[in-house]
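Table S2 (text version). Query chain:
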Amino acid sequence: MNLDRITFNPEVMGGKPCIRGMRVTVGTIVGLMASGHTPEEILKAYPYLEKDDIYQALAYAAWRTEEIEVPLAMP
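Corresponding structure-token output:
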């Protein structure tokens, strides 16, 4: 899976996954889609985004939900 539009930088939005280094998080995009906004509405609200940004944000979020977290053993 190619997620080259998803970036992580501790100096941008506290290191949350963002779109191409901008101050737009994956969570923002997913939240907008979940609340019923269309990609066209999102692009109108954020004209510096591209449609591929939205679809990669959704793909990243879907991938993250499939990850398995293994608790660390405590000594």
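Notes on Table S2: The mean pLDDT is 92. The two ends are 37 Å apart (CA to CA).
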